[in-house]
Amino acid sequence: MDKTRKLLLLSSSCLAILFSLSSAYGQVAVNTNNLTTLTPSNYTGSSGPSNLSNLTYSAYNDNDIGFSIQHPLDWRIDKNNTSSYTVAGFDSPNGTANVDVRVFPSGDYKSIKDYGDKRFKESGDYTLLQYYRNSTTLLSGKPAIKVTYLTTNQGFFGSSTSKALMVATLIPEKKSIYAIVYYSNPQDFNDFRPVVEKMIDSFKISGKGPVIQEDNSSSSVP
Q1: In the CATH scheme, what is the code of domain 55-205?
Q2: Which residues pair with 70 in a beta bridge?
Q3: Where is average pLDDT lowest: 25-34, 139-148, 200-209?
């Protein structure tokens, strides 16, 4: 009985101590201004920007090819991806969004309408979701097409589907088509859409050259 009583008294003492500690900590005020987060600024942990108004933009200029574009300051600039005539790429901090600037030969396309019709409307390579071409569809103030589509990529571990937005215009004096292409996972597409639209609106084409030459090692497929 004495041993049992001692165990009961010890258990009661432990519970009393735990209760007093929890009560003391429950009275401590938490200053939320001192809390920090490990996720990149302006971004949530899983998808797109959490506060678009706080994003800081920076200008990217290419005087050789003749264009400029505003991009979020914390997006990574990729100059090494030259596939599909990409001249500059911009990747979001969490890696779920990519924006490419592409400049490729206009070839036999007589107009941007001709390019859009043959590349998207008459082609079965993509799942076409939206297609715009009217007086308000512009890129750098020039007539353009705006296309939203799904594309399937074949990788080492199998195929994957991306949702893409392309805005493109033909520059006759350069014999080239300038395009901005946005890729993302379908579920993240709308999260980054406002940022991409701002990048598109800021895009400016300048200069009279150079003419982009055909290169059999590259592909003009968007």
Answers
A1: 3.40.1000.10
A2: 59
A3: 25-34
